[in-house]
Amino acid sequence: NRRVTVRDLALAKERGEKWPMLTAYDAMTASVFDEAGIPVILVGDSMGNCHLGYETTVPVTMDEMTMLTAAVVRGTSRGLIVADLPFGSYQEGEVQALRSATRLVKEAGAQAVKIEGGERSADRIGLLARSGIPVMAHVGLTPQSVHAMGYRVQGRGEEAAAQLMRDAKAAQDAGAFALVLEMVPAPVAAEVTRALQIPTVGIGAGSECDAQVLVWTDMAGLTPGKLPRFVKQYAALRSVLGDAARAFAEDVTTGTFPAAEHSYE
Ligand code: KIV
Ligand code: NA
């Protein structure tokens, strides 16, 4: 009963086996996904939007990442836990990146970290990989750069597609064990997936990636408002939880709860 390893994921690519990844930000939710057999759980900096009430991922701190990663690790025993390096925790250079990644692995117990950028982050991917920290890279739409790039499809057009391929290869050559492709045209993601030896993990990147990831609150229907096209909702948790809260409130105000069976003699 050991955890999934990056070697298992490399073998899955060789065998042509696809795998799912979900985000989680707390021990209990993570334990549900772990029991459901989700092999890789990402403690994404999407916790900024989905868990901490920020508008973007930009404000997420190393303290927040470390605390919630430790919770996810405690709630799981089988999945590989990947923790995002938040904005500002690796931009200063290799030494800062190594210090941040080390904290997520050593203090929080993550087995791998994720970093945004291909070519632009290759030096840091290289140092982490050489230091024994498995690194997942993330290219295409990189939400930490929202103020520079917005939230829109990346890699459209010949030039942008060629840059995406260079980013993907730079990440692989630097030693990344996997690569997230976010919001890139399906044919471009397919070409990158074929060109790489390491697995690609798509989100809004079509069906030919080696793996797929979704933000858990999106796929479970907990996130309010209009969701991106790439999300599929597998449950309607927002209405289920809302109904439960309204039923509880009704029972309390009418004196129906607690009943005798919920009370002590
Ligand atoms: O933070 C996150 O949830 C992510 C995934 C969308 C890949 O980076
Ligand atoms: Na992220």
From TrEMBL:
GO cellular component term, pick one: cytoplasm
Keyword set includes RNA-binding: no
GO molecular function, one term: magnesium ion binding
Binding locations of Mg(2+): D45, D84, E116
The keyword Cytoplasm belongs to this UniProt entry's keyword annotation: yes
EC nos: 2.1.2.11
Active-site positions on this chain: E182
Principal place of residence: cytoplasm
Cross-referenced SUPFAM superfamilies: Phosphoenolpyruvate/pyruvate domain
UniProtKB keywords: Cytoplasm, Magnesium, Metal-binding, Methyltransferase, Pantothenate biosynthesis, Transferase
Binding site for 3-methyl-2-oxobutanoate: D45, S46, D84, K114
Pathway participation: Cofactor biosynthesis; (R)-pantothenate biosynthesis; (R)-pantoate from 3-methyl-2-oxobutanoate: step 1/2
Catalytic activity annotation: (6R)-5,10-methylene-5,6,7,8-tetrahydrofolate + 3-methyl-2-oxobutanoate + H2O = 2-dehydropantoate + (6S)-5,6,7,8-tetrahydrofolate
Domain of life: Bacteria
Gene3D superfamilies for this protein: Phosphoenolpyruvate-binding domains
Protein function: Catalyzes the reversible reaction in which hydroxymethyl group from 5,10-methylenetetrahydrofolate is transferred onto alpha-ketoisovalerate to form ketopantoate.
Subunit composition and interactions: Homodecamer; pentamer of dimers.
PANTHER family associated with the record: 3-METHYL-2-OXOBUTANOATE HYDROXYMETHYLTRANSFERASE (PTHR20881)
Protein name, as recorded: 3-methyl-2-oxobutanoate hydroxymethyltransferase
The gene coding this protein: panB
